[in-house]
Fold these 4 entries.
Entry 1:
Amino acid sequence: MTPTITKEQALCMIFYVEFNPTNMENLKDRIKNMTDIDICYETDSLHPFLLPLVKMYSEPYHYKKYTKTFETLEKIHHVDMQQKQEIHFSSDRQIVQFLNEVYLTTDLLNDRVYTKKLVSNKDILSHVWPYTTKFDDKLVLGFSKWCYSKNVAFTTVDYQCKAFENGQQQRELILILMFNNKIMKPTTFNS
């Protein structure tokens, strides 16, 4: 599954510039001045291009606009936990999409929203529990099997084993995590 990128990241890709706040603001202004052109993609959000709005609107199911911007991601990021508890996933598809958006396998170089972390399946499961009752009767192994059966993106990442003094081992993944440490506190991985 292709990761979702923001409109600002796509703009930097189109104009072959480094993704940083200065370039991001300059390019947002530049594209705003092009009143009849906008940035879009066809099937893969990692392949953006500029297209006249007339063409984009003539085939709205073929050309897709980038709907996520830093502002929307930051709003999602800063929603308090009480509001998050009100979110409830009712289908497998919603859970898979949530997992694929929060736990990326590809680094988008977006330090404002994503952070590289070392996490276990137990960490991931504890993060999903508040949003669904699907895993209330499952242990970590059952959750892991479900993720593999649904082809969740992080299941393609190789595990690392962490040994404890008592002889037990824990399998961990290096993933790109959306939320901050207030929501989930895995060990920070430094590469």
Note: Strands lie at 37-41, 49-52, 64-65, 103-104, 115-120, 160-163, 169-177, 187-188.
Entry 2:
Amino acid sequence: MMHPFTPARGGSRGAAALEGKPRFPSPESLQPAPPAGSRGVPGTAERLKLPQIMKLLGAKNAEGVSFLSLLGELLAITGSLAYSVARSFPFSAWGEALFVMLQTVTVGFLIQHYGGRTRRGVLFVLLYIGVLSVLLSPLAPASVLTAMQASNMPAIIVSRVIQAATNFRNGHTGQLSALTVIILFAGSLARIFTSVQETGDILLVVTYVVSVACNGLIVAQVLYYWKPTKKFLQRSTCDEAI
């Protein structure tokens, strides 16, 4: 299976300038691996954050879901998407990033909307569309795309740490979807084994090990704060009823 950032055949905008640059692991290292029989085809990614979106819509509340953490994750996803498109990689190489990006932007808007900042949420979406349009256009320097790609893993790690700090400060995980968190953890764990079998690349394996550690921290918090979170959600429901 072609690694998402293995140079594809054929030229493209910025391909020459990007040629010879080191390959970096994708932000999907924290996302579930494509299910067997559909590798390279967006599958689980299409529904990855739907549990989170549905939970926010149902509760009409985004308490506990860090917007700053989401921005870090969105930075990594956007870097992967723009870099892959610039290199003319097949859709199978960046399709997951596209689906996850759309869902992440939706969650970002909902965080602002349910926080009483709907206008700021709309502005966030419009600004992101503008930035993405530039990154996907010939105006985007190859050096910028490469730098964004290189910052993927640090951005993801920082975003997870920010969410973990938010959970610790609140003493609960709020409206954070346990299902989405567990899927992320299971996916990153699975990718350790698939990367060993398919690539044998030590750097790639270490990257996925770090991914497991980051996602494992959030999963541990979801379990540790399960009762406090349940009480918080019940209290929030009662407050809304009043």
Note: Residues 91-114 form the longest helix (24 residues).
Entry 3:
Amino acid sequence: MYPIMFLVKASVTLLAVINCSGVHAYCENNASVKLSSYKYKYKSQVIDDASDIISMTVDHRISKATCDYTDSYGFRGNKVWVDNGCRAVFKICYTKDAGAYCQHKTSLRLSSNGYQYASQILDDAAIVTSMRVRHQISKATCDYGDSYGFRGSTMWVNNGCRAIFSVCFRKGTSVTVECSSRDYKPKVCKIPTNGGRVLSVVPEKHKSRSPCLPGDSYFHTDKVIRVTNGCRAVFRVGIKN
């Protein structure tokens, strides 16, 4: 999963604040947690009353080492982690029970044939809120965050995982928006929401060598996506109508 950040540099007044302390529009449970990868070692912590963590974003970086999502920090289930020298205060959005945001539910089969990555966009979904193994088919294990997971309205499997999954989601539509920071300059791109509310924005196809990281090189509101630091990508935007 790739989360949404909440603050932008003061010089960019258009994107100054995003609702729900910048996590997700439907974030009803959030916590502020300080995590430190001392001597560049891996460190993890369980969020005690959380069933599933929905997003994790940097509130304030303390270390000189960068804090990059999936490289030096991330989450899995109800656990958050840091590595590679990252030290920061993080904003955590989570659910207290597995069905808290299960407004709509479906079952589907996904297969990582030949141990290859495979993904599928969930039709009629603005955002997937949880994904659990209902019946494992493969001999290879299906571990959340390692061999299966979700980002926005897209679900994925990898490393040989084949299973039938139970998926909770919020109904809506999804559109793609291409936005490019050329010569490392900021660029603002309009989202065609038609009056709807944006629930998720994730890079679907990278077009740059520079990474597209939430809160670092891309941000969003209900109306626009802003990219910077050389990020160029096609974004999948989930919209609640």
Note: The mean pLDDT is 84.
Entry 4:
Amino acid sequence: MDMGQAEEAQNIENPEEQVTVQHPEKLVNETPESFVNGFNLVTEIIVGYGWYVILAVVVIFYLRHRFRSNISQLMKEKSDRDYYKKYDTKTALARQEGRQRALMRMQEENDIKAKELCEREMQKEEEKKLQRIEEWENHKQGKAYRSKHYQPKEEEPVATSKEKKPKPTSTFRPDDYNPLMGNARNNGFRPRQRSSRGG
């Protein structure tokens, strides 16, 4: 027998030794009193005025169904009025004028930047012009003249006979290469020789 079965058999044989749970003499309801009061109030209202509540709900649903189109039309008209108030002619005109002022301000800034850029370009051109005149004057006087447009190439050093130039290697395959013949040159396909037999 297991230990558990032995204990059960012992408890059945000796019922006096079983542990008894003692209940308190007075049971206390732990439900909050406000909840009980609210529940009692609701049940009293339902019992006393239940038919009136059901009738009121039915009437509300009927009226809502009956006047739904009118209510939606009124709501649409209200939203249209709000929309037109928001976008009336005065407001639209004020917005348009504000937009025009902002565009004018941006255009003025852009014009100022373009004018500054044009002045810088003119200064650069003037400096180049003065530099060319100065170079031409130097050239007339016999001073060294060096054109900025013509840059002489650096001369390559002449190779002496003692230095050997590296032989360029070709990466191309030889002329007799055929990829269908295999990798080796001598192991390619050769047709069988015909023997001439007299007959």
Note: The mean pLDDT is 78.
